[in-house]
Amino acid sequence: MQRATVNRGLVVAILVALCGVGDTLYLNGLFTDNAILQIERPEITAQQARIYGTTAVSETIRITGTNGFPTLAAKPEIVGKETEGPWSVTVPAPTNGKKGPFNITVESLDENGNATNSTTFGNVFFGDVIVCSGQSNMALPISATDNKTEEVAGASQYQNIHLYNVVHNESNTSISTIAGVWEIASNTSVPGFSAVCYMTGRMLVDWLRNTHPDTEMHIGLIESNIGGTTVHFWAPPEVGVACNSTGMLPWQGECAQQVPGWLWNAMINPISMNGTGYPIMAAIYYQGEADSGENDHMTTDAYTCELANMIRFWRREWNQTLLPFINVQLPGAGGGCELKGGGDHGFTGWVGIRAAQQKTSRLIKHTGMVVAVDQGGALHYGHKVEVAHRAHLWVRQLAYADATAHAQGPIFLYASKSTADALEITLHFHVTNGPLRLAQVWQCEKVAPCTFPGINASCCDGGAPSIVTVRLNGVFYHSGRPGHHQPKVPAIWSWVPATIILNAESSTVTAKPLLPPIGTHGWPEYYSTYIGTEAFSVEAVVVNGVGRPGCAIVDANGIPAGTYESSPVMISP
Fold first, then answer.
1. CA dist., res. 501 & res. 517, Å (int)
2. How many CB atoms lie within 10 A of CB 71?
3. Contact criterion met (CB below 8 Å) for 473 and 351
4. Is the dihedral of CA 199, 200, 201, 207 positive or negative?
5. Per DSSP, what are the bridge partners of residue 29?
6. Contact, 389 vs 374, CB < 8 A?
């Protein structure tokens, strides 16, 4: 996976150009022309919008604006013997009810009230702000998507969407400066912006225009991501302590001292600022691929700890207890027909990360998980429009309390053994938007079938095919080799084809694993020496077993179930 590097010269140049107003007056880099300030939303946060920066401790700050923008004042904080200190001022909504546009002037005043430095940023609006973070699949731009032509051509219709792309930076300690420029959505600004982030915002605007035609809401999208990065980097350093994962991290790029939190410190903290920064409406996070590799893989429990605590700390640092946090589950990319090796310390790989993401969404309240297991086909897949659609449903449900969004797909509850067939199991789902049905996933016709002896798994044909391969991600256990006593030792991590029968009324799926004969293609040769009853631990039953799915079990909204852990179910191959 390609690692993005940091252009330190560019970072310094932009910080100087944007933030340095005079000898002592500095504004955080978020305050440029076209900025979107978070409108008050008491149901999400008690925070009001803020403007903040640094100045000489002997000076005061005066903020004025046009179009009814309130006049504000601030005094810098004195920190030790420093000659400059941070200042932050809350921005109440204008009494005239206007949401913009405003031209805002920030001045530093000496002890006599005379202006020493000043700067003005214009075309500012109050609206809803979303931060989009993670690694390469969040960073993948509109220009790399399958629908880039339509998105770019239509961008001029969405000038109420403003885009801010955080310049890549890193730090081993928390910093308060950030680099970037707010831009209005256009055919020049949209192509290079995060596809998932932009299309989520675009779909929100479509929905808002349809439901509130008399009010044009502005949406501010902040993209802060770097490809190839692990969860450690985006979590505050305290998360590493909580999850016992402190210390140097396994891969080295441009920076020789990459420690937990080095991207949080430089690319997220300047936005949150320990509750005195830039309030937001929601966060969307798409990451996990880098934590599933052979050299730096994490188990389900380890990644769950990191992600869950990252969400808690993000909310603490923004001082927004109910900040809607939407996590995108890893897609159905990678893998193939081969069976995967298991481990002794929990599930690993893409399946293990998906299970952790699902577990986290159930542990932490007011979060949503975008299921993408029916998407993909490649690591950096271009079909991001469905991921954005599901993300915007979660924003509607969590941030706007839209009861019609139905963002939650089927939830796998448990598996039970069939009494009619030794190999048959029944999978039970909680369905809020039924009935369950089989759906052909995107670009299934381009997926090569996975072939075991006597099994040919192909795409759904829109009906109910006699054989559909369903991914039963799990661990086969053996009860010991001859001469050994090792009950229930993990032996194989596997994607196993199965025939399925849908029972939509009771929200269950009956699955019968189609196991290749022991010792034939599909099993390691040593497995034929294993004896005793086998157990199968069902972890997810949503799509076919080829790694690049052909069919999915979906609800009425077309959303599939995610990846879940389950108690073992005994079967006899």
1. 23
2. 8
3. yes
4. positive
5. none
6. no
Query: Rounded to whole angstroms, how far apart are CA atoms 349 and 297?
Result: 7
Which token pair is 318? 């923004």
For the chain, what is the total number of helices (H) and then of strands (E)?
11, 28
List helix spans (H) across 382-518: 385-399
Q: Which amino acid is at 519?
A: G
Among 360, 334, 374, 565, which Cα is nearest to 472's? Answer: 565
pLDDT mean by block of 10 residues, the chain; 573 residues: 43 45 82 96 81 93 95 86 87 87 95 93 97 97 96 97 96 92 98 98 97 93 95 90 66 54 94 91 95 70 93 94 93 46 44 83 93 76 92 96 90 69 66 71 48 40 36 35 36 37 56 46 33 36 39 74 61 46
Query: Which three-class secondary structure string do you get for 195-245?
Result: HHHHHHHHHHHHHHHHHCCCCCCEEEEEEEECCCCCHHHHCCHHHHHHCCC
Distance CA 412, CA 436 (A): 12
The DSSP 8-state label assigned to residue 78 in this structure reads P
**What b-and-e string marks burial along 471-503, b requiring 16 or more CB atoms within 10 Å of the CB?**
bbbbbbbbbeeeeeeeeeebbbbbbbbbbbebe
CA 51/CA 67 separation, integer angstroms: 17
Q: Distance between CA 180 and CA 163 in Å, rounded?
A: 10
Distance of alpha carbon 201 from its chain centroid, rounded? Answer: 15
531/477 Cα distance (integer angstroms): 10
Spatial separation of the C-alpha atoms in residues 376 and 286, rounded to whole Å: 14
Contact 357, 307 (CB under 8 A): yes
Strand partners of residue 440: 551
d(CA 106, CA 377) in angstroms, rounded, equals 50
Q: What confidence score (pLDDT) does residue 120 get?
A: 96
DSSP 446: G
CB neighbour list of residue 530: distance below 8 Å, 6 or more residues apart: 478, 479, 480, 481, 491
pLDDT of residue 42: 80
CA triplet 423, 429, 435: central angle to 5 degrees?
110
pTM summary value = 0.84
Torsion angle, alpha carbons of 477, 480, 486, 491, to 10 = -30
**With contact defined as beta carbons under 8 Å apart, do 326 and 283 qualify?**
yes
266 close to 169: Cβ distance less than 8 angstroms: yes
Helix ranges restricted to H, 319-443: 349-363, 385-399
Are 160 and 218 a contacting pair, CB within 8 Å?
yes
Q: Do 461 and 440 form a contact (C-beta atoms < 8 A)?
A: yes
